[in-house]
Amino acid sequence: MMVPRSLLFALSLAWLVSAPLSASAQVPFSEIQDVARAKAEEGLSLFAEGRWQEAYERFRIAEDLFHAPTLVLHMAHCQRELGRLLAARALYRKVAEEKPPEEAPDAFHRAHEIATEHLKELDERIPRISIDVPGQSSDALLVLLDGGPVVALHPADIELDPGRHRIHAAARGVEPLDMTLDVVERERRRVRLELKPIPPPPPPPPPPTPGSIVPGATVLGVGLAGLAVGAITGGLTLARMSEIREQCNGARCPDTIRGDADAIRPLAFASNVGFAVGGVGLAAGIVLLIVRPGGSPPTSSLVVGPHGVGGRF
């Protein structure tokens, strides 16, 4: 039930002029009451302009200085207009539960009646949700609503102000869940949170397979064969040269052995080539035996798990 704004003004003005001062009141108390009345008048002006938050602050200051049900009632109206239905209901309940005495001003009695009527209205307007987390026990589950913990898996509804809200859910062995929830007045909703298990880490990559030794052994064999050819032809060359030297007298050699000397040159060349091929083949064969080409190269992997980051390189 909406109360006409003119009636609200009349109630507050009635309090401002009718709030009694004790005959024995001291001057400091009178000054406090004057400040409270001034703040209440400012609040009424701001309320009439629709400046709910500023009006609420003025009424709150006045209430802190001089308690009156009409001030609390106006604070509740401001919170209601701001969409803070839970805070408004708490203030309405405060006025409704504080029944004024018979000799209290009529404005106080009327404030009590209005607060009682608004309590019933707000109970229907306040949104309510329930949270369901299948597969999770309440002792291992953490659910935060707008940063504050809530008891999930509880049959009672959770009351919220209209608007956007944030939900965070976490439990052992599952991925945390964050979501936003928009609710409107009078809404009743069941929120189901599906928590997904944390996937197991991927298996480590297989170790690299060694390559074949055949290429290295083959090249090494060629190198050894080259060395053997070089050694044999080198030995033959040295033997023939020794025979030729025996037939020569100092630096003079007979013409009959000129053909033998020419025949030595191919053997010497073959020996040099054999040693060269053998040396290169021997070195290349040893390298190929160490490297063993043809196998799979080592792989690197990075795994992110619940306990940190690991890898294989």
TrEMBL record:
Pro residues composition-biased segments: 197-210
InterPro entries linked: TPR-like_helical_dom_sf
Keywords: Membrane, Signal, Transmembrane, Transmembrane helix
Coiled coil regions, renumbered to chain: none
Signal sequence bounds: 1-25
The keyword Transferase is assigned to this record: no
Name of the protein in its database record: PEGA domain-containing protein
Species for this entry: Chondromyces crocatus
